[in-house]
Amino acid sequence: MKDADVPGVGGSGTSDLASKIDYLFRTVYPAGRGPYSYKEAAEGIAKAGGGAVSDTTLWKLRTGKSDNPTKRVLEGLAVFFGVEPAYFFDNETTEAVGAEVELLVLLRDAGVNGAQLRSFVELSPESREMVTQLIANTAKLERQRHRRSRPTDGDDVK
Q: How far apart, in whole angstroms, are the C-alpha atoms of residue 79 and residue 8?
């Protein structure tokens, strides 16, 4: 993942809270549906023990209209979206979480179930990297097999 692709990490090394929150809203949601609404996120944060937060507050944070949330709100967002609170403050953590989220999005979109995802998330970083390499290598083999099974220009296809 390049710096330009990571939310809130630009060439200047500056961090943008709104883009990090927006990234989570756009990418982290269950399979078979679209992104969470502000109301759903507010309710989820409350259920996760993050206390009461309004959907308007979440909208303001996501759009940059507000950029000074309480610690409780950031912790609630982190729990709700399944990221470390450091995601919002530390660009290195932001990059690492962004890479993990991208992989999870690919798995979600490929139809990997929740139990499989939970097992993946519980792995150590080293084990996650091994699984990632296994998936990449398997996909490469699948692509090669697919290319070999396609007819070439010289074959008669009827």
A: 19
